[in-house]
């Protein structure tokens, strides 16, 4: 039976001041204290519950003294449990006195460690052992920036202000916790994650909204790049321990944005693919600048040879660069009409502004999610440093692992991911969490073929690129890959769903309802449809990629095409 005892803040401070010589430090430690609630668990265990008026305001301070308070939050409240604070011991002693317990008899004298601020014995031998086992975090600056506003992106797209705050990360080997827990102590990062978490928990109709837009779905182990002219929304879902990485970049006021999404299912193995992901953005903006340069001079030369291309004035008015008549345009206008303003093209020297969004994972028992989280944050920190002369990368969203964990109230309070996917609007840069499975009409083409890649014998694991900014007509391309029938997989087709989940999933208690049916469909495809039937490649003919184009009749339906992509690779990955 629980017996709560409530004491007002001034009473708590009075108790503390009467038992310590350093009242100033206690005042600082309890700044913002509203209420302290003592709860007996089975009449024996005492815990202290502290409420703050603004949780995020104090999380950075408590990290500095050695406690990551936000990691101890429950999913539905801003209650903080700090059982190691000196407040606990003093209030515990006061409570024992009030209940006739005879004080704190037998309790060993303790003091707070000067480096990690945990309570240690006053015994010199124990103090020395404690200090030897503690690793003090050493923060170092990175080339990653924190977005200039908590939301990082608005309805107008990426933040127009230059991020001012540089992200500091613990030096490798000195972090007392995983990076997702550390990032949770940064107010802007935690606030952004909480906002997205609220969107995930609401019964919104994001899938219905996407059904009215051109969507490009990225499956596990894939990556896609697209411009607003090619697709409206890049999306990836069905992630539990997996992580979704989204990038969006711009260069100058009139540049063509590029968006990317990758579905990462392992740590470490995709570092080269993630670097190619960043390089794709750099090359895109280089090509854009070169194209603007060629269009300017090419238009001038064509005008000298033949004016027929510009017989229609409206055609010329729709182009912002009138180099063919820039010397005489103003003279033909009435005095009261100002010439059209010149539109500044991006310069190759302009810094590419890149927004980074990472979502996925949860606090799984095996720690798989946190390993991927750590790897992704470190990898993009390294990439931001490597390419800092060309890009300025901002960490806009880090809804990962501990910040993406909720509880399944229907299943004994088991932990589960709050968001299972991410959607990126290529026009605005706005990101939206995906909490459920996508409708079948948004999955995209050849799902069985693309899913079969996960069961193929790849020499080096890599992210399959299914779409780029150079893709003809926005076509999806599935490059050939080798796979062989695996008779042993037939056994998985005969087991029940519970067994299949335990064998084939890293998070069996969190998978969607359609996980087992989708997996059985993929396994059946691998064992019954040979690769030669899918990609060809008989005799001397090399395998051919599969190419799909959007249906002219249905927005998010895809049809196979015989048109060969410009830069399709036919070698196996």
TrEMBL record:
GO molecular function terms noted in the UniProt entry: protein-N-terminal asparagine amidohydrolase activity
GO aspect biological process, one term: ubiquitin-dependent protein catabolic process
CC per GO annotation: nucleus
Stored InterPro entries: NTAN1 (IPR026750)
Region (Disordered): 321-349, 536-573
Superkingdom per UniProt: Eukaryota
Extent of Polar residues compositional bias: 550-560
PANTHER family in UniProt: N-TERMINAL ASPARAGINE AMIDOHYDROLASE, PROTEIN N-TERMINAL ASPARAGINE AMIDOHYDROLASE
Record's protein name: N-terminal asparagine
Originating organism: Seminavis robusta
């Amino acid at each position: 039976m629980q017996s709560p005892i409530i004491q007002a803040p001034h009473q708590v401070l009075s108790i503390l001041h009467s038992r310590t010589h350093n009242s100033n430090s206690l005042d600082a430690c309890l700044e913002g204290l509203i209420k302290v609630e003592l709860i007996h668990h089975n009449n024996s265990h005492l815990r202290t519950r502290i409420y703050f008026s603004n949780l995020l305001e104090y999380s950075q301070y408590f990290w500095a003294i050695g406690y990551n308070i936000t990691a101890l939050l429950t999913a539905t409240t801003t209650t903080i449990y700090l059982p190691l604070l000196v407040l606990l011991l003093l209030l515990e002693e006061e409570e024992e006195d009030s209940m006739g317990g005879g004080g704190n008899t037998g309790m060993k004298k303790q003091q707070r460690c000067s480096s990690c601020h945990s309570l240690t014995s006053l015994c010199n031998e124990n103090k020395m052992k404690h200090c030897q086992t503690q690793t003090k975090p050493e923060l170092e600056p990175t080339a990653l920036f924190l977005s200039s506003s908590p939301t990082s992106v608005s309805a107008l797209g990426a933040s127009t202000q230059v991020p001012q705050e540089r992200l500091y990360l613990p030096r490798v080997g000195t972090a007392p916790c995983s990076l997702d827990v550390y990032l949770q102590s940064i107010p802007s990062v935690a606030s952004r994650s909480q906002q997205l978490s609220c969107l995930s928990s609401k019964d919104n109709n994001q899938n219905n909204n996407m059904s009215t837009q051109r969507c490009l779905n990225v499956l596990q182990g894939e990556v896609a790049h697209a411009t607003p002219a090619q697709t409206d929304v890049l999306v990836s879902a069905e992630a539990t321990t997996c992580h979704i990485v989204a990038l969006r970049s711009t260069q100058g006021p009139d540049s063509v944005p590029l968006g990317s999404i990758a579905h990462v299912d392992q740590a470490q193995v995709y570092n080269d693919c993630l670097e190619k992901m960043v390089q794709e953005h750099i090359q895109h903006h280089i090509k854009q600048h070169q194209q603007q340069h060629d269009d300017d001079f090419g238009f001038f030369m064509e005008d000298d040879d033949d004016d027929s291309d510009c017989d229609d004035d409206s055609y010329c008015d729709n182009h912002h660069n009138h180099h063919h008549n820039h010397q005489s345009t103003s003279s033909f206008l009435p005095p009261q009409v100002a010439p059209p303003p010149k539109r500044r093209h991006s310069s190759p020297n302009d810094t590419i502004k890149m927004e980074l969004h990472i979502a996925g994972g949860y606090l799984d028992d095996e720690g798989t999610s946190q390993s991927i989280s750590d790897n992704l944050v470190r990898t993009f920190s390294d990439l931001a440093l490597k390419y800092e002369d060309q890009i300025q990368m901002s960490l806009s969203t880090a809804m990962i692992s501990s910040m993406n964990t909720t509880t399944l109230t229907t299943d004994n309070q088991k932990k589960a991911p709050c968001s299972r996917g991410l959607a990126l609007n290529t026009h605005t840069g706005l990101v939206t969490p995906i909490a459920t499975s996508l409708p079948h009409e948004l999955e995209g083409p050849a799902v069985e073929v693309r899913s079969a890649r996960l069961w193929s014998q790849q020499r080096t694991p890599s992210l399959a690129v299914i779409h780029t900014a150079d893709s003809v007509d926005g076509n999806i391309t599935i490059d050939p890959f080798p796979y062989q029938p695996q008779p042993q997989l037939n056994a998985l087709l005969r087991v029940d769903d519970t067994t299949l989940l335990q064998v084939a999933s890293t998070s069996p208690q969190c998978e969607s309802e359609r996980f087992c049916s989708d997996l059985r469909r993929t396994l059946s495809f691998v064992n019954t449809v040979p690769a030669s039937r899918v990609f060809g490649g008989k005799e001397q003919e090399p395998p051919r990629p599969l190419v799909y184009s959007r249906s002219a009749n249905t927005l998010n339906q895809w049809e196979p095409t015989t048109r060969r992509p410009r830069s399709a690779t036919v070698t196996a990955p």
